[in-house]
Structure formats: structure tokens, C-alpha cells
Amino acid sequence: MPSTSVVNKDLLAERSKCTFDREEFTVWWVGGKDRLEEKRNREHFCMNQPEFGDKIPLHYLSHKELYEETIRKATAIFAKSKEMVQKKHGYNAGNFVKFLDVLTGDGFMHQANPLAVHFSMFVPGIMGHGNAEQQERWLDRALNCKILGTYVQTELGHGTFLRGLETTATFDEETDEIVINSPRLSAYKWWPGGLGLTANHCIVMAQLYSKGRCHGVNPFMVQIRDEETHMPLAGIEVGEIGNKLGYNGVNNGFLGFKNFRIPEKPISSVLNYGTMVFTRVLIVLDTSQMLARAATIAIRYSCVRRQSVIDPNQPEVQVIDHQTQQGKLLPQLAKAIALKLSADNLWKMYEATQVDLETGNTDRLPELHAVSCCLKAVSTGDAAAGVEVCRLACGGHGYLSSTNFLNLYGSATAAVTYEGENTVLYLQTARYLVKVWNQALKGQQLMPTVRYLEQYATKPVKRFAWSDSTPVIIEAFQAVTANRLRLANEHIQQRVKAGRTPQEATNETGLELVHLAEIHCRGFILQSAYAAIEQACQTASQPLGEVLREICRLVVYDEALRITGDLLRFTTMSDPDLVELQRKYEASLGAIRPNAVSIVDAFDYPDFILGSTLGAYDGNVYERLFEDAMKSPLNQEPVNRTFELYLKPLMRGKL
Amino acid sequence: MPSTSVVNKDLLAERSKCTFDREEFTVWWVGGKDRLEEKRNREHFCMNQPEFGDKIPLHYLSHKELYEETIRKATAIFAKSKEMVQKKHGYNAGNFVKFLDVLTGDGFMHQANPLAVHFSMFVPGIMGHGNAEQQERWLDRALNCKILGTYVQTELGHGTFLRGLETTATFDEETDEIVINSPRLSAYKWWPGGLGLTANHCIVMAQLYSKGRCHGVNPFMVQIRDEETHMPLAGIEVGEIGNKLGYNGVNNGFLGFKNFRIPEKPISSVLNYGTMVFTRVLIVLDTSQMLARAATIAIRYSCVRRQSVIDPNQPEVQVIDHQTQQGKLLPQLAKAIALKLSADNLWKMYEATQVDLETGNTDRLPELHAVSCCLKAVSTGDAAAGVEVCRLACGGHGYLSSTNFLNLYGSATAAVTYEGENTVLYLQTARYLVKVWNQALKGQQLMPTVRYLEQYATKPVKRFAWSDSTPVIIEAFQAVTANRLRLANEHIQQRVKAGRTPQEATNETGLELVHLAEIHCRGFILQSAYAAIEQACQTASQPLGEVLREICRLVVYDEALRITGDLLRFTTMSDPDLVELQRKYEASLGAIRPNAVSIVDAFDYPDFILGSTLGAYDGNVYERLFEDAMKSPLNQEPVNRTFELYLKPLMRGKL
């Protein structure tokens, strides 16, 4: 920590302007007093473990050093945390996995870690899907880290398209064994976290062949390294896939098989709708947190940083007083909140569906799947873009690794691709929308999140009556989606009539389909945020209610101003309406401005989670930037050896 | 290089579909046969110098190792290149600096290098602005690298706002010396390239004080390190500012002064409009090249990669056959070309202005400045965003450092902030537009790039007559700018009438102003591209002309579809017009698709400039990905030492 503990006076002034009870906001944001207490206890515990810190900031390390430091830290965290959980609650799987939440995300280990996949995918893979015998064999060992595992699916040549996987698992009738092979380079497994040098077991997805016939992709439990020596077993080629934009602590790996024999039958099918939706809820929550952290950093810095005058007779202003800066940052703050509230809503849908499933009712599964697809896509895309808006709003200093923006971006943008590439996900949602649109055209009743389509399918096309109240703007998003869906559906049918196959016609309408799925999702997000905030306002104090409603208005105006083409096209919005909307948007920025620091304070991120020289609570940004620079190995000696080796010979003309 | 030199068969098929003469395209793109020959000779020379390669890919090195490797490579390049230039042309400043072009950019050294600023800013700083005595003292030594310099302006507390600099240079009458001080931490110089551990001299910008009065910011030549030992001189605190998102070879530094005395008077004023415009032309050219390289990588990979079926009875398609993929990549290709052609246009304006200046005519300076501001902003913003679109279009593999996307993004996004932060630049252009708008309202004649405003200022508001021919769409951008300018100007005046100062009113209209400056610039870019392509078509072969016109249409449609809100608002565009525009856009994607690989081939980037596992000419992407991974230091031993240190103790419960 910097030697100074004095809080920057501009931040003090900002905090003194707060109109609401910050603790009340935090309790709401975190989801209750108990959760908040639990969170703070966990953070307090972590903050006070000296082994949990980085000796040198990770951004100064080599690729290899970073892996080694990550393993040191991750194993220390797991061991210490287990000990703590044992003392406090008695050790069991549930307690431990819950506690590990904070450790498997990137909030604490800013380039993540290779044991995360062990707990997030390997252990659940065994718990959910191995049979009783298999569970007995592996579950206890996995939970106690006696074996270290990962989940191995993607290959060099195939990611999204599961059916295309090339790894083969051939049943050998003579020995009753399975023989696994990577028939060519593109069949090599590529990407699984922790696979490179860490895991000794994995669940491998491969095409099952038996009696010359392919039975499709199945999961197999495979030991890949010796438990005593950690050497790769014969027939196994394993290593790590190299440096990446982010997540360099994860130790993503490759894996090739050459006639590798396992005694096992496949374990039962691994993925189902439920797991996928559950994972996507977590992704939306995670990325909303990344965006909230980026907004925290940039908003605090924008109140400390003074640059340029507005009134030539006055001193330079806090950069947040430039309207353009407010227009960059405050919508990110509001968006982070809206995304989190949508994840909460998706979670409720997921729970309701689980209850339905227990009674054998699968009606809502396709709807749940469709929402989870587009919500994952919008949240990861918006969070990644928003982190960059926040970084760029910090000017040159935002480019420094010590701000932690690069790690936040690395994590957010990775989520754009993993667990379903965003464009592919939009197309899945669009496919669902086209399907239900055609049901609605036939007069069938639709599921709740798409029920709004019914009125547009059954009535003649009429412009939606615009007004700029929040609920009406949200309905306008639905009107836009419905109209775009009607057009895209017509274009698909026109193409089919012109002789294209339905698949070709759909592909040739792909851009329109992606676009409408996105707008459908934005309507869902705004509706989720609006409903959650209105509900919160029933019990919240009046000052907090006012702040939350202002945040809701800001995100709604911001989103509406991004689709003015659609609004002018499909609603009765006029030119003066548009001027008025812009005016209201600007007023909303101005209304949130005085509370901006207090809102991000209320997100309640400790400095070690933010991990940023520009975002710390005390606002001593220049001291922290300088302090990080002084940790650079290049600053430990006044003259680098390259002076004698290269620079001096160059200067003397002797190179 | 990978052992295989067989070109991927899908790329061969793509190339066989080419409808135009690739070499003719390349000659046009590079700017003539002579330039192309020069470029290829230079590349051939560089390719054949073993010292110019990296021993280990830079992304595996630590921050310190990367600096040391960069110095090794940069000094080798400078020494070898000088020798070569000497042999071939006879050594002189002009020849050498021209040759160094390729070396100071990031095309060859993917994280750039600390000697770049020596040639791009330090040497020109002396050439352009030192007096005769000063030139004699430093110029020859600087040109021959007998001293190593940099240009030192920004501070921890101030970047964009030059007047706010806090470093003081106080004239001491008694000793006839200047005493330089950093009165507080925020006054420390921060960011200059090469300043950290490389330079021993620099041009320092500081507030000149004499007889108790401040005479504003002036440049001073300062020696900071001993030429023999490289030790920092007494009174100098110097070091590097730490790790960054990109450009880690540049060795950006900090510099603090404590009563540091120099014998010099300030050198004459350093920056003028000309230098700034010149620098911005280079930035637009550079960033257009970054985008073109990213498009090359992504388009080649998208033709090699096969993923998902369209027809269920057919094999998986090349991913570029998904319309959504075309919609991501082909506009980037077209945009890169349009940005390059706008830079050419700005360059012509710059040259014409230089001729004017010689006759004392400064009339076009403000216009030139206004165009250079917004063009720098749009090109850097679009290039950075476009690189990320290309990266994400490569799915998970795009996230690997070996693709070189991270370096391209690091370079492009840095340019968003340096040499004038983009929002600040947009506001400068907007200020010019508001000024000339008010001139036009008074019936005054405007300069060529804004002359179109006259008709909108003098005639009553009428909707612009939409049609989707290229020149009309370009005029529509002008109509949108004029209408938005009219509104913003009215809003400023309304705010002034309501009691705000003109500065406050302008700040409160900031979002509108930024927006209209951007659209003005997009009109300029489209107009520049259209004019340049029409001119090229006068001499080009018919097949090339067709391709170039298709590229122009694509970028025009793409830009138009991004401002449909404005087009519906300010032109007569109807709903069927919009449907038709979308249809034409899709047709344009389809028309360019078969030539996509050939167009990026015609950009003529050798593999070592692209530096990408996914973008190489032969398309052996999986071999190259694997090969780069195998260079990882973590893959040099089957078991990392952390197994015995941490993993095994964890597994045995002994941690």
C-alpha cells in the first residue's frame, strides 16, 4: 500500500455530496445483509494472508514465471481456504465450493488460475454425470485435490461445432478397452484450462466407434499424467498452447493421443440445457462485475484527474465535468447494474424451470435456452466494449497494465468467444424467435418472454405509439424486434421461393437475424432492470429509490438513442421527440453525476479486487502509478546491461 | 518457418477465382512501380538478416527480457541498415530516414522500439527548430547516433492540456543558466518513448520563468545521462514507467528534475500546424495499415477454417461462407482502403497548404487542421475497433498472442489517445464547424471541405432527396452533418440565452458536437475514397476498376447503414429504401467474397510483417499454432518444478 493514507480531497468532496445511504445500496446490490457479511468476512480473510499477494506485479513476469507464481498462489489459496472453511463450518463439498467462488473468478487472481476448471467443470462433471461406481472412484479424490482434473472438449480444428470433433475412442472387443486416438493435427485437443502442465486427469470428449460404427461424441475419464512423477503417460502428448491476450494464469493446454488405452466405458452424457444455462448465468454475472469494476476505476480517476478549463478564469476541471466524459462513463455504470439484474432474472427463470422439470414439464426449456444465448452474447459484448470505453476515458494512463484494465478486458473479451461464440448464440436465439413467430402467425400462444410478439403477428402492421416514459420505451424495443422479425421471416421465405434451400435462405438472412436477436435481448435486459428496480423501490428508502430509478432511466435512454433508426422506422417517434430524448438523456447524466463516486463506492469492491493504480479508494493515483513503475525489474539498476552490449557500440560506430 | 511449404488447398482454390490482376492492384495500393520495387528490396534485405529475427517469440519474454531483446534487435537493424544504405545510395540523412520507415513502425518490430522516437521526433526536432549553433552542436551527432535522444512533454498530471505543464525552467541571472525543477510528483515527465533506459539527451518542454514571470511552455535541450557510463546525471531521476497493453519495446520513461542546471537558452518553438498535420497523416496511414493487416489475417484464416454446415448433406463450410462472417470482415477490408485513400487526400491538402504558406497565404490552415483532427480520430477509432472485429472473427484462436492481433490492437488503440486524444480532437473539428457555420449564416464563402454547408445555411430546411447511388449517399452524409450542426448551434445559443456562459453552453452540447464532427469526417472519408477510386479507374484495367468500385460501394453502404437514424431523420429515405439498401449491402458482400483472399494478397504483406500464425500466405494455420506453442519455455520440460514444490504437497494434503 502507498505510504500515504490520506484520501484525495476531490474524492472526499464527491463523497460528501452523496444523496443516499451507501450501505443500503450495497446490501441491495449484493443481495442481502447475510451475503454482504459473508462477502466481507471472506475478503477480510483473504486480505490478511500474506501468501495471497503477488511478490512482483504479474505484468512484469515472463510467461513461465507467471505460471509458476500462479501455481504458488493458487495452491496456497486452496490449502488455506480449506483450512479456514474446516474450522468455521466443517469441511464439505458445498461449503468449500461456495467459498471458492471468489477464488475461481478473476477478481482475486487477475489472470485467473489453472485449478479453477478443476472445481468449475471437472468436479461438477463427476458429480452430475458419472455413475455410482465412477463417482465413488473419483469424486472424493477430486474434491480433496488428490487428483487434479479438467474438462477436455475443443480441438485445434473444432470449437463451436461439437459434432465435428475428430478425436476417436474405439471400442476394442478383444480387450474390452477403449482406444483413443488423434488421427491428425487438427484433432489435437486445444484450449482446456489447466490441461497444459497442471491436470493429471480429464474428462475427454471423443467420437465413440464400436463395430465400425460411429455413436457420436461421448465423454471419457482419462488419466494423462502419473500421480507420483507427473510425467505424461505413454501414448499421451500434452503441453500448453502458449501466451494469450489474457487469462495467462489458466494454463490452457493441448493433448494428443496415440493408441491410448483406457479401461473405462464412457461416462454418461455430460452437458444438458440446465448446465449450459447455469454456466451462462454465471458468465453474465461475472461480466457485469467486470464492467462494474472498470466503471469504478474510471469514475474515481475522472474525479481526481483535472484537465482543461471550461471557464478560462477558473482552474482546470475534474474531467468528469466534461459532458463527453459523462457520456462515456455513466452509461457503463448503469449498464453494469442492468446486466446484473438481468442475470438475476435469468436465474429465477432457471429455478422455475428446474421445478417444472421435476414434474416432467419441459415446456419452458427452449425459451430459457433462447434467453440464455442472447443474454450471454449481449452481456459479454457490452462488457468487453464497456471496459475499453472506461480504459480509453482514462487517457494515456489507462494504457498502463497497473490500471488492471488489460486484465479486465482480457477476461471480458474471452467470454465473447467461450461457452458459445456470440454470433452463433444470436443465431440460436433468432432461430427460436422465427419458430415462435410462425407459431404466433398461426394463433398459438407463446411463452412469457416472447408473448409480446403475439399482438404483432395477429394484427395488421401499425406504427407503435411512441412516448419517452420508461415502460413505453421498453415496449418500443419489443415493437422493433417484432417488426424486424416479420421482415426477416419474409426475406427467408422470399429466398426459399426463389429456389434457395431453407438453410441457404437462413444463412443469407443471417445479418438481419443477428440484429433482431440482439434487440430482443436488449428489450429483455431493460425489462428485467426496470422490474427489479421497481420491486426494490417498494422497500427501499426514498433517496435510494430515486437513485435507482435514475440509473434505470439512463440505461433506457442510452439504449434507445442507439437504435434511433429502428425507432423512427417502426414507431411514431418524430424529430422533436428525438431532440427531447437527447435532452432527457443529458439531464439524466447530469442527475447521476453528483452521486457517481458514491454509487461505485457502493459496489463495495476492496482495492485488492480492483487491483488498479487508478481505481483505489483513496484516489492517490500518481503515487500508485509511480510505485508500480518502481517495482519494474528494469528500475532496479540505473544502467541496463544492454548499454555496454549494444548502445555504446552503436554510439561509437562499432556495431 | 514450418516444415511444410505446401499451400492450403482452400487458399489455392480462392486464389484461382481471382478476377483481376493482383500485381496491378498492388502497384496502385503502394503508389507506383518504383515504390513497390523499393518496398520489396527493403523487405528482401530485412528477411535475409538472421539478426533481425526474434530468438524466442516476444510474448514469452518478461518485461525486462523484452526490453533487452528489443535493444539487441533495434541496434542491429540500425547498424546493418546504415551499412546497406551507405553501400547502395551513399549515406545521408534523407536516405537513411527514408529507409528507416519500415523499422520505426510496428510492422517489423511488433512491440516497436525505443530508438524510433530518436528518429521520428528528436532528430526532426533539432532539424526543424534548433538555431544554427544548436544544429551544429547536435544534428550530426544525433543523425549518427552518437547521442540518443527523445522528446519529453507529457507529465504524470498533464497530457492533452499543454498549458497545464508543471515542470519549471527558471532563468538564473547570476550564472546565466536555466534551473529545471519538478515541483511535485504530478510534474514528473511520464510517457516519452525511449526515455526510460535508452536516451541520454532529450528535448524537454517546461514553463520558462524569468524575473519572477512565467513566459509559457518552451523546449530545452537537456543531457540526462553520462555518455560514457550512461549513469543518470546528478539532479536527474529517470526510469521506465512499467508494463503496458502494447508497445512494450518502446521503453516509455519518467523524468524528475531537482535543481538541474543547463547552460542553454530554450530552443525555438517546436510544434506548428505543419508538423502536427504531417504526424497525423502518418498516423492515419499507419492505422489503415494495421487494419489491412488484421483483415488479411482474418480473411485468410476464414477461408482455411471450416466450421458448421449450412446444407446438412454437405461438409462443413469455410467460415467465410457464413453471411455473418462476411459482414464482419469484408467491411474492414474496404474500410482500410478508404482510410488509406483519405490519408492520401489529406496529404495532398497538406502539400497544397505548404505551397500557399511559402507565399504567405495561411487561409487554408484552419481547415487543414480541422480535417486532420477528425480524420486522426475516426481512423484510429475505427482501426482499433476493426482489429478487434477481425480478432473475434477468428474465434478462440484469435485470442492467442501468436496471431499478432494483440500487438496490432495495442498499436491501434494507443493511437486513439496519443497525439491528441480523440474526443478532444472531435471537439476541435466541431469548434471549426460551428465557426464556419456561423460564417455561412452570414453569407460568407467557405473553404472546399466545408463548402457544402453553405447551401444548408442559406436555404430553408428541406429534406435531402435520398437515392442509393454512391455520390448521393456521400452527399447525404453532408446533409446529416449540416442538419446536426444547425441543431447543435441552436442548442448552444439556447443555453447561452438561458444564462450559461458560451463555454458552459458548448460543454453542455459536447455530445452532439462530437457526433456531428464524426459524421462530417465520415463524409470526407467516403468522398476521398470515391474520388480516388474514380480517378484510378481512368487508367486501371476494367477488371481492377470493377473490384475497386465494388469496394467503394461496400464501404459506402456499410457506413450508411450505421446512421439510418440520421438518414431517416434528415433525408427522404423511406422504409422500402432502407430494405433496398440492406439488400444492396448484402449483394456487395457477396460480390467481394470470391476476390477477398486475392485483395488481401494484393496488399502484399510478407509473412514476417504480418507475424501471424493464422495469417501466413500458405494457410498452414494449425501447424503454425502448434509450432509457436512448442516454443513456449513451459514446453521445454515435461514436468514444471511447481509440481514438486506445490502441486504434489497439495495432492498429499501437506501444504
UniProtKB/TrEMBL annotation, chains A, B:
Which parts of the sequence belong to the Acyl-CoA oxidase C-terminal domain? 471-651
* Positions of the Acyl-coenzyme A oxidase N-terminal domain: 21-148
Predominant place of localization: other
Looking at the UniProt record for this protein, which Gene Ontology cellular component terms does it annotate, in alphabetical order?
Answer: peroxisome
Q: Give the UniProt keywords, A-Z.
A: FAD, Fatty acid metabolism, Flavoprotein, Lipid metabolism, Oxidoreductase, Peroxisome
Q: In which pathway does it act?
A: Lipid metabolism; peroxisomal fatty acid beta-oxidation
Active site (catalytic residues): 419
Classify the source by domain of life.
Answer: Eukaryota
Q: Which cofactor does it need?
A: FAD
List residues binding FAD.
154, 193
Q: Indicate yes or no for the key word Oxidoreductase.
A: yes
Signal sequence span is: none
What processes in GO biological process is this protein linked to? fatty acid metabolic process
Q: Which residues form the Acyl-CoA oxidase C-alpha1 domain?
A: 273-434
Q: Which GO terms describe its molecular function?
A: oxidoreductase activity
Question: Where would you find this protein in the cell?
Answer: Peroxisome
What SUPFAM superfamilies does this protein map onto? Acyl-CoA dehydrogenase C-terminal domain-like, Acyl-CoA dehydrogenase NM domain-like
Q: Which family does it belong to?
A: Belongs to the acyl-CoA oxidase family.
Question: Under which name does UniProt file this protein?
Answer: Acyl-coenzyme A oxidase
